[in-house]
């Protein structure tokens, strides 16, 4: 038996020959199972147990900032001389109930492929959502114009073109993606923090249309378009963050 200690962002590789038939229990923090195909697996909290035999797990990762610890038991005692367990010759009494207790400490692994895969996956999802938000808001603006909304802003004396809705939506959606990626990297609860941040920013974005001096129809339509873009981006990014952390 040994204790695997994972500092925030750390990752420990599971070597099949050495971890065969191992059983682990999370004693503190959270641990995410990284699957053999590179996809993120479930995130396990305190007192959660897992069996590595036949699970296709290639690494254990700490998705948060708080140190996580896992008690690992294998049919035969192991020790650690590096970051991987090494089997020892069987001694008398060396079994499941008589094992050596060695602590394994691993540091952050922010530059490893698992992190890159997660960030790229989130960014890709965000860019697809951005395109969807641009198309949706532009179509909604075209529909509003078709029913009589002029989108004229008195302050500049100009009418907002349809392309303007696409550009503005795309810009602020990309900002949202950048925020999501940053929270995935540095926050222990990225999904919850992202939703809170996005809702606050969306609420602030409703102020300019209301004080622009435009007629009621234009102001209402602009507010609605802001909400449409938020309704597309926020759920998609929040869901993507949860699948990669929580």
UniProtKB/TrEMBL annotation:
Pfam families: DUF6069. Residues 77-115 are annotated as: Disordered. Signal peptide: none annotated. InterPro entries: DUF6069. The keyword Transmembrane applies. Keywords: Membrane, Transmembrane, Transmembrane helix. The keyword Electron transport does not apply. The chain crosses the membrane at residues 122-144, 164-184, 191-211, 217-238. This is Integral membrane protein. The lineage of its organism: Bacteria, Bacillati, Actinomycetota, Actinomycetes, Micromonosporales.
């Amino acid at each position: 038996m040994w204790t695997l200690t994972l500092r925030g962002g750390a990752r420990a590789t599971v070597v099949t020959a050495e971890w065969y038939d191992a059983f682990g229990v999370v004693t503190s923090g959270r641990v995410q199972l990284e699957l053999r195909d590179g996809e993120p697996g479930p995130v396990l909290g305190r007192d959660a147990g897992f069996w590595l035999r036949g699970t296709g797990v290639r690494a254990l990762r700490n998705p948060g900032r708080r140190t996580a610890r896992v008690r690992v038991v294998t049919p035969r005692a192991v020790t650690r001389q590096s970051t991987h367990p090494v089997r020892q010759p069987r001694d008398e009494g060396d079994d499941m109930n008589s094992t050596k207790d060695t602590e394994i400490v691993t540091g952050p692994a922010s530059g490893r492929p698992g992190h890159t895969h997660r960030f790229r996956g989130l960014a890709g999802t965000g860019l697809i959502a951005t395109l969807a938000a641009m198309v949706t808001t532009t179509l909604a603006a075209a529909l509003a114009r078709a029913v009589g909304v002029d989108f004229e802003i008195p302050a500049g004396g100009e009418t907002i073109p349809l392309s303007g809705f696409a550009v503005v939506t795309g810009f602020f959606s990309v900002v949202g993606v950048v925020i999501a990626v940053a929270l995935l990297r540095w926050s222990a609860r990225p999904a919850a923090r992202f939703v809170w941040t996005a809702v606050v920013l969306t609420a602030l974005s409703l102020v300019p249309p209301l004080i622009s001096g435009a007629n009621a129809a234009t102001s209402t339509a602009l507010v609605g378009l802001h909400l449409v873009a938020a309704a597309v981006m926020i759920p998609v990014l929040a869901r993507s963050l949860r699948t990669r952390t929580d």
